[in-house]
Design goal:
With 1007 residues, the protein is an alpha+beta fold. It has 38 helices and 24 strands.
């Protein structure tokens, strides 16, 4: 005899919900084996339903509950209305059973005496051939796994009849066990069907699947998982943790409870690596909630214990093993879903271009490899140990003043990274940087060009042109490390930032690179902020809201690094000092804020010597050197009217932002060196302008010039002109026109350097008489003044910072009788050095001579000798211990360090590529901003040529000059791509970054 069935329908208010409910009620009435009774639980106002005749004719009663009532709580409210012995059919407003669904469910229940629960096949409402759910299992650690979801229903699972659990929607619970098998309210709306199946199996029953019983299910109903990603991640993880505590042996529950927070930390790391940052906060929220819900865990364990008659071993055969889970989550590794372009770094000639640049670099800087350190210009030695490098990068005591405590410049972190690459001698890392600068620039330019063109020849042109930029070569010759690093980092920032809206991996990489670029050149912050706002507006304008969320992450690491320094400068009333150049402030040659200087900037040169041309040839002839950059400029301007004009105009905006920044900062003076004001270096801004100009030129060559021979001529002519323009800079080192020098390894005398070996805290007072009659005073801690120890707190200060020792220095040179050794020792100073200013004049020489004579007469100061660094004296007095941080300062230092490390670690974890992220990236076009009218042409390799077809000698290897091989490849990229159903990833979400679906073969998807 068929079982008597009592249907319970849970609904929520709303117009769309009402339409779904009426459809579900109509489906219930149309059953070939109708339910004996139907109870409706309305989580909200039910007055309109009570007045409906169609509803009244179907249901035996309506229960009105709070709007916050969960599905499990609603079922519990209706349970008293179910007659004894009746089977319970659980439905929601969005689950419409097919006409014979209940007949087949009851039939399966009668044919299977051991069945406690019968589960239907849930199919999509708008496509009944798509399986929504058919059976659920779990791993050994309790993670729920859908056995069939998102698949095309071809009957492949119709022979499956046994499962550990199922989706709670549409299940039929046997009347004899309905009191024991109630949905657990503590699960918060997730894994309720799985939990019922586990308890049924422990009670001697089982879950039987009825694939022939079909129920249409829509997302977002009362029994479905929440639609929001944050809420879904929270309830899913909370349900898993609750079940873990409820299922664990009693002795293991405390251990599981103690492991909740460590697991949350570990899973937060895996979420970031898996490009799921939105799951981090829900992870912690679920862990904390599970920890405090001890009563709910106790009730769940009691319910299991009251009904249990079998051992936990009975469910083991139905669990999903780790190998099975990997197979289910494998979404086709090795298939790129229609990848349209390969990188072809080696086959496309990129590697040869980098190798050629290395040869040119070695030829231009031949003797550098024999130097232990590099000096001159803005270069200084680095600390002797890696730990000291990172000490300079942390908030704390600064190494170029007395008792100065505050934030480090973010540039110190960049210096620490560079120095850590050669731990045996960090200063030698700067030598390697200079040797590898040219090939690294070619490499960065080549990769940046992959976002603009697929043509191998144009990528090589972009790499070479980027390495031959006049501003870059000037920075190399003049020894400006911050400017060199900016130029090397900018193409990688461009490569990652233009696709940051596509994936979290690119957003993480771009955020780190953005922080590094602004750390090296804070004056670029306004321009980059403007470009970020423009990019954000474009993404929001195209309704890519999740892409906008990724872009919002970009400035976070930069803000974390700069916030301490911002607070410091604002507190001292010098906000404009935030734009000051980091590192050693060097009053070297640069364009001034006059007509000649601005003209040089407008032509791409940061100095009025035009990258050495005015010294290389007679000045009247050298003044025409900017014409050598004209071909690139003409090609760039033509990008505005090219087929890819949107990308061309955007790149010209980048160039304009860089040029405007250079024009602005050249007239801004916020830094000082030994009392001399020094304007902000405009070369870094010109590097930003150059990347926009060069990118626009490549757009023109790629799209506007369609004749292959003409494209080759234009590219070769522009590259040749730049190569000629680079000759003075590349020969400056051998011709003696460069300020680069061998070392020194220390800016202090060898005696002091030996005493402070290992970066010991020994202070030296350095007095340098100036040509204007002034006296420059500074305190150097350790074996040398170093690049990482420099601070804009000192270089941009308008008043003495830390302990003011200017009076002590003046008194030291005067006739005043005082205990000079005692006061110096009290400040922790062990040595006094009178240095000689370069290009010493009569006033400086007179003052230096008087200073030497005065200090020689001071008792307690022993003359240590004359050195190539100046005259040195040693204190005989007992020197005070170096200053240390107070307890409050240590707390501030720890807080700043922890916050910065957390943000940088998150960005680093996001940037780590995974198999899924690499596959998703390869499945999309590398080119950004391709116009809809541009046809996609498949790349043609050498093996695809006809036997009698030979490439022209000297031509650029161009895979896009040939016609496409099929019509599909010629389709405009703007055509809609049919949506594909992506398999679940390891966390139940998209296998890669959301929205980054593989495209159809032969087509591209640009955003």
């Amino acid at each position: 005899m068929p079982a008597r069935v009592h249907a319970i329908i849970v609904a929520r208010p709303g117009s769309s919900s009402r339409a779904q409910l009426l459809r579900t009620l109509e489906a219930v009435r149309s059953q070939t084996a109708p339910a004996a009774a139907v109870t409706l639980v309305m989580c909200g106002d039910a007055s309109s339903l009570r007045e409906s005749e169609s509803v009244a004719s179907t249901v035996e009663g309506i229960i009105e509950a709070r709007t916050t009532t969960s599905f499990a709580e609603a079922v519990e409210l209706a349970r008293p209305r179910v007659q004894e012995g009746s089977a319970v059919w659980l439905l929601a407003q969005d689950t419409a059973p097919h006409p014979r669904a209940l007949e087949r469910l009851t039939g399966t229940l009668e044919r299977s005496p051991s069945a406690a629960i019968v589960a239907p096949k849930l199919v999509a409402t708008d496509n009944d051939r798509e399986i929504v759910s058919l059976g659920v299992s779990m791993t050994r650690l309790g993670r729920s796994v859908e056995l069939a979801a998102g698949e095309l229903d071809q009957g492949q699972h119709d022979r499956t009849d046994d499962a550990l659990g199922s989706d709670v929607r549409g299940i039929l619970i046997r009347g004899q066990v309905r009191d024991a098998l109630r949905p657990d309210r503590a699960l918060a709306g997730a894994d309720e069907g799985l939990d019922l199946g586990v308890r049924a199996r422990l009670g001697g029953g089982r879950v039987v699947l009825a694939p022939s019983a079909r129920i249409s299910a829509a997302p977002g109903g009362p029994a479905a998982l929440p639609s929001g990603r944050f809420r879904r991640a929270y309830v899913t993880r909370l349900a898993q943790l609750h079940r873990r505590l409820a299922y664990a042996p009693a002795a293991a529950v405390p251990l599981h409870w103690l492991s909740l927070l460590p697991l949350a930390l570990w899973r937060s790391i895996t979420h970031l690596i898996g490009k799921r940052p939105e799951a981090v906060f829900p992870e912690w929220g679920a862990a904390l909630t599970a920890m405090v819900r001890i009563g709910a865990v106790a009730r769940s364990r009691a319910a299991i214990r009251a009904f249990r008659s079998s051992s936990w071993a009975s469910i083991a055969p139905l669990r999903v093993t780790s190998s099975e889970l990997r197979r289910r989550l494998d979404d086709g590794h090795g298939s790129e879903g229609g990848a349209v372009s390969e990188l072809r770094f080696f086959s496309g000639g990129g590697a040869w271009a980098v190798l050629a640049a290395l040869v040119v670099s070695v030829a231009s800087f031949t003797t550098l490899l024999a130097w232990p350190a590099i000096g001159g210009g803005g270069l200084l030695p680095l600390r002797q140990t890696v730990s000291a490098l990172w000490d300079d990068a942390a908030w704390g005591i600064r190494g170029i003043a007395v008792d100065l405590v505050g934030p480090a410049d973010p540039f110190a972190s960049v210096v620490a990274v560079v120095g850590s690459l050669w731990p045996a001698g960090p200063s030698f890392a700067m030598v390697l940087l200079w040797i590898l600068a040219l090939p690294l620039a070619v490499l960065g330019g080549w990769f940046a060009a992959t976002r603009v063109t697929d043509r191998a020849g144009l990528r090589i042109f972009a790499g070479v042109a980027w390495a031959l930029a006049p501003t870059f070569l000037t920075a190399l010759v003049e020894g400006r490390p911050a400017a060199v690093l900016v130029h090397l980092l900018l193409p990688w920032l461009f490569h990652a930032a233009v696709v940051a809206h596509r994936s979290w991996g690119a957003a993480g990489s771009a955020s780190i690179l953005l922080a590094a670029v602004i750390a090296c050149a804070p004056s670029l912050a306004p321009a980059l902020a403007l470009l970020w706002i423009v990019a954000l507006g474009i993404v929001l304008g195209t309704a890519q809201f999740r892409g906008a969320g990724r872009l919002l992450w970009l400035p976070v690491p930069t803000a974390a690094l700069f916030v301490p320094l911002v607070f410091w400068q604002l507190a001292h009333g010098t906000p404009l000092a935030l734009l000051g150049d980091p590192g050693l402030i060097w009053a070297g040659p640069q364009a001034a804020a006059d007509a000649a200087g601005r003209l040089a900037l407008a032509t791409g040169f940061p100095t009025t010597d035009l990258a050495g041309w005015t010294d290389f040839v007679p000045a009247p002839l050298g003044a025409w050197a900017p014409l050598l950059c004209a071909p690139v400029a003409v090609l760039a301007l033509a990008a505005a009217v090219s087929p890819r004009w949107r990308a061309g105009i955007t790149l010209l905006v980048v160039a304009l932002a860089g040029a405007a920044t250079a024009f602005f900062v050249v007239g801004v003076t916020v830094s000082f060196t030994q009392g001399t004001p020094v304007a902000i270096w405009p070369g870094s801004a010109l590097s930003l302008a150059w990347i926009g100009l060069l990118g626009a030129a490549v757009v023109t060559l790629d799209t506007a010039i369609t004749l292959p021979r003409l494209r080759v001529v234009a590219a070769v002519a522009a590259a040749t002109a730049l190569a000629i323009c680079a000759i003075p800079a590349l020969t400056a080192f051998h011709a003696g026109r460069s300020v680069l020098s061998d070392g020194p390894e220390s800016t202090l005398p060898a005696y002091v350097a030996a005493q402070a070996a290992g970066d010991q805290s020994i202070a030296t007072l350095v007095l340098t008489p100036q040509n204007d009659g002034g006296l420059a005073v500074e305190v150097v801690w350790g074996a040398s003044e170093t690049l990482g120890s420099q601070s804009t707190m000192i270089s941009t200060a308008v008043e003495p910072q830390g302990a003011d020792i200017s009076t002590l220095a003046v008194d030291l040179l005067s006739a005043r009788d005082f205990d000079a050794p005692g006061e110096l020792a009290a400040e922790g100073i062990s040595y006094v050095l009178v240095a000689q200013v370069p290009g010493e004049g009569d006033q400086a020489r007179t003052l230096r001579t008087a200073a030497v004579a005065s200090i020689d007469q001071r008792p307690g100061l022993v003359h240590a000798g004359s050195t190539n660094r100046g005259e040195l004296w040693r204190l005989e007095a007992e020197v005070a211990d170096p200053p240390t941080l107070t307890a409050a300062q240590q707390g501030s230092a720890r807080f700043v360090m922890i916050m910065q490390l957390m943000v940088l670690l998150a960005a680093l974890l996001l940037s780590i590529p995974t198999r899924a992220s690499r596959r998703a990236a390869r499945a999309q076009s590398r080119i950004v901003g391709r116009a809809p009218e541009e046809p996609l042409v498949l790349p043609r390799h050498a093996e695809d040529r006809e036997p009698d077809e030979e490439p022209l000698v000297g031509t650029i290897d161009d895979p896009q000059d040939a016609p496409a091989l099929d019509d599909a490849a010629l389709a405009p990229i703007a055509e809609p791509v049919p949506p594909t159903v992506a398999p679940p990833s390891s966390d139940g979400e998209d296998s890669s970054d959301d929205g980054d679906r593989p495209t159809e073969p032969g087509r591209e998807q640009d955003r």
